[in-house]
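haha ok so turns out i had the wrong file open the whole time. this is the CORRECT one, sorry everyone. sequence first:
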Amino acid sequence: MQDEVSQKVAGALRLNLTAAAEARWRKRYTSNAGAYDYYLKGMRSLDRRGVTRDRKPDVMNSVEMFRKAIELDPNYALAHAQLADAYAWLAVVADPDPKWLAAYREELSRAESLDSELAETRIARYELLWSSYEGFNMAEAIRVLREADKLDPTAVHQELGVLYSHVGLEGPAIREFERRSVSTTLRHRPSAFSERPR
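then structure:
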């Protein structure tokens, strides 16, 4: 029934989805309602993280929520990917402790082994690529985000905009920020156990 409603909404909006995008739209990441609830709570906290150390409590809350989601569904690849992203933020922004880097690598590896087609694993990888941990590898960070964009065209506009602005590409940065406002509407669709807010 959800798939039928999604198709009708897409038809009403006249969205032309590629086969890969349609498969992603229909994909279920967990069938455990409790895990999904913890995932959403984790995303709510992660979305508030910003770029300053004073947001560490929000990120620590997201870490706790993603861990609870994974306890309920150990194969929840999306929760593992977002947990890796939270650990990357902790390592890069809030607390350059090697334990966060080790935890990031473990969760990223787990997420990729469960689902190699997640845009979120690429986003987590980008967090480290453009940091001192990876020698500020901007070119590779852009490549990884473009790869994520192919997997989910609604996922990376904010990150690409920020990255382009850091390397002085003002025009592409503005375009990505404008695209983000459109894609945010598409990402927050009502669909139980497949919602992917970011």
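Residues 185-198 have pLDDT under 50 and may be disordered.
again sry for the mixup
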